[in-house]
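Standup notes
- DV: blocked on the single-chain target, sequence here:
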Amino acid sequence: MEGTVPELTHRAVRDAALLRPAAGARQLGGGAAADDWSVYQYRIREFLSAWLPPKTEAPYELHSAIRYAALGKGKHLRPLLCYAAGEVLEIDPRFLDAMAGAVELIHAFSLVHDDLPAMDDDELRRGRPTVHVVYGEPLAILAGDALQIAAFQLLASDRQLSRTPQVQSLAIGILAAAAGSRGMTGGQALDIAAEGHQPTIVELEDLYFRKTGQLIRASIGMACTWREQADPFATEQLNGFASRIGLAFQIRDDLLEYISTKATTGKSTHSDRDNHKATYPGLVGVGRARHRAQELYDEAMSLLDFLGHAALPLRRLANFIVRRKE
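- DV (later): unblocked, structure below
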């Protein structure tokens, strides 16, 4: 498993542009149709499909469950943010594949465990049955564990990253911090502790930043490690952008659960309310939640002003994140 993308024969022309330096792929952010993000969505699925153990390798059921969890046709927003940051910083996407793949594996692990009966007890994810519904609880737990470990194995073994040990070490540290008890896992623990209680806005935003925002910030932060020493100001601005978009993303997620249907979101709706979980619209109302998401979006956009036209890939993604249809 070398971490390379196989030949994409039926999209050879489009993918060829991705294998050149990012400056040659600038068209993605320069006013192209939103569907052009499918290039990167396809890229990360193919990359992970080639890297993950095949279903034909023992233990067969576990590997099947891992692939089921990781390779579903979701939006892959975190890898997209990693690649979009790479476009902004003019980084060849080949140097970002392992980072984008690792953050998607951590996200997949979190979804598998969040959906378990002991947690949110959801039966639908990305438009299809959740992992524990298909494979049973014990195997779902093991699949989540294996996905988390696989993320760090990917960063530690990737050929491109291994040539730059400093970048590799920084990326591993960023993702570990984002996934750990001070990040996503800790945010989930706070979420459980808040069930049946009414936190303050400050407490809820801290919970959201840990649970969702940290991994979104890591998606951009890992890409920045390629340019961190050369441009620390850009790294600081992009991390600020990611923090605000991560919080706006979770508030928007709350709004979608309040207003949308399973057909719209591809996952169970109203589970947070059923589990008596604290949510932004539940705490302050739908109108104020929408206002706060817009406020965070505006702040995030202002942090990209220094980039000028080059910021278009991130602006487009942020626009999609905050203005997803209800």
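- Follow-up: Confidence is low (pLDDT under 50) at residues 1-35.
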